[in-house]
Specification:
With 248 residues, the chain is mostly helical. 73% of the residues lie in helices and 0% in strands. It has 15 helices and no strands. Helix 1 crosses helix 3, helix 6 packs antiparallel against helix 8 and helix 9 crosses helix 11. The relative contact order is 0.12.
Length: 248
């Protein structure tokens, strides 16, 4: 509990959560687990943890908590571009409407802090280059499986492969503000939080290995998702990690 109090103060400042007044037992369990245990498990720093928290809350559409963690993200030293790019990264996986809901919460916090919006553009592609640059990033992450996947797609589904390269990877992965390793780690957390996407979780476990993350980092990231997504989705994601990277 002492660790949780220190961490909560670092993230959110002075004061106590409102739930202590109405549901003190529940809030004590929550605070001890999230801020006293999970935040200290594994090799992630607080900036990485808050980015993961932001994307998972965006997936879940738990918008009041998202707004609180935008403030926490600023408090641990993340800049507005990093915060916004993490939420933008969710769009290919959860769709535009939910991502826009999250963006509105970010913008409200930014306005309170007199952070001028729109932020400086992080766009690195244009209409002519988005496919080629996206395909290059996609291949960098996943290797030779990408051209094979494109070649084997049925004629009436090749547009999906084009969208993957140009939209998911071209429009988002190429953007500035976050490096490739961070985007790939966040994507693993986003897909794990969705549930029911274990095929894609396995693919992105391999993608994370390919960009330089080790198993301990992936376990730490998925562990950090646990308080927000629950045990079933966490255990499913860990099973995918263990399948791709077996224990010695």
């Amino acid at each position: 509990m002492e660790r949780s109090e220190r961490k909560y103060k670092q993230l959110f400042g002075e004061g106590l959560p409102a739930a202590y007044a109405t549901d003190p037992d529940f809030q004590e369990i929550l605070s001890r687990f999230i801020f006293g245990e999970v935040f200290y498990q594994g090799n992630l720093d607080d900036k990485q943890r808050e980015l993961i928290t932001l994307v998972v809350l965006t997936v879940n559409q738990t918008l009041p908590q998202l707004k609180a963690h935008v403030q926490a993200a600023l408090n641990v030293g993340l800049n507005p571009v990093e915060i916004k790019e993490a939420v933008y990264q969710c769009a290919p996986y959860i769709g535009f409407p939910k991502t826009l809901n999250a963006i509105n919460e970010l913008n409200e916090v930014f306005k309170v802090h007199n952070i001028a919006i729109p932020l400086e553009s992080q766009k690195q592609v244009n209409e002519e280059t988005r496919f080629d640059k996206g395909l290059a990033v996609q291949t960098e992450i996943f290797g030779d499986v990408i051209p094979k996947m494109r070649a084997s797609a049925p004629a009436n589904q090749k547009h999906i492969q084009y969208y993957l390269s140009s939209f998911c990877f071209g429009d988002f992965y190429t953007r500035g503000g976050l490096d490739l390793k961070t985007r790939e780690l966040l994507t693993l957390c986003i897909i794990s939080a969705l549930g029911g996407a274990e095929g894609q979780v396995r693919a992105h476990v391999q993608g994370n290995l390919n960009v330089g993350h080790d198993k301990e980092t992936l376990i730490a990231a998925i562990t950090h998702c646990l308080p927000y997504i629950g045990f079933p989705r966490t255990l499913n994601a860990l099973a995918c990690v263990n399948e791709i990277i077996p224990e010695n």
